[in-house]
Amino acid sequence: MYPCKISKRDGEFALTLPDDLVARLSLKEGQTLFASVQDGALLLRQGNTPCYSLDDLLAATNPEALGQANTHSEWLEASPRVGREII
């Protein structure tokens, strides 16, 4: 386990990572990491594409737009069930 320090710079929080952890993960200065929380643990992920949880996506969804989508779902009810999907 690596000790990391949280500090506040220019009104934003910053996480300081030890040099050996940065080297082990081949991180570069200025690189973007994607953060998420799973079971109370902070996870940092490398990559070009963020990984979203369902909770993240629903939190960013406009409830009014979601309601409109639900009113136009007759096709879903009329569709035959072909697998083990739960709707």
Overview of the structural elements:
This protein has one domain (5-78): Pemi-like Protein 1, Chain: D (Ribbon). The protein has 4 helices and 4 strands; from the N terminus they run E-E-H-E-E-H-H-H. It has helices at residues 19-24, 54-59, 63-71, 74-78; strands at residues 5-9, 12-16, 34-38, 41-45. The protein has a two-stranded antiparallel ribbon with strand order 1-2. A two-stranded antiparallel sheet has the order 3-4. The radius of gyration is 20 Å and the shape is elongated.
Average pLDDT, all residues:
85
Instruction: Walk across the major sheet and give the strand order.
Output: 1-2
The backbone outline, from C-alpha atoms, is elongated
Helix content: 25-40%
How much strand? Answer: 15-25%
Largest sheet: 2 strands, antiparallel
What is the third-level CATH name, the topology?
Answer: Pemi-like Protein 1, Chain: D
Instruction: Figure out the total of helices.
Output: 4
CATH architecture label: Ribbon
Uncertain residue ranges: none
Order of helices and strands: EEHEEHHH
Query: What is the CATH C level class, in words?
Result: Mainly Beta
Radius of gyration: 20 Å
**Distance N to C terminus:** 42 Å
Helix-and-strand structural type: alpha+beta
Work out the number of β strands.
4
Number of domains: 1
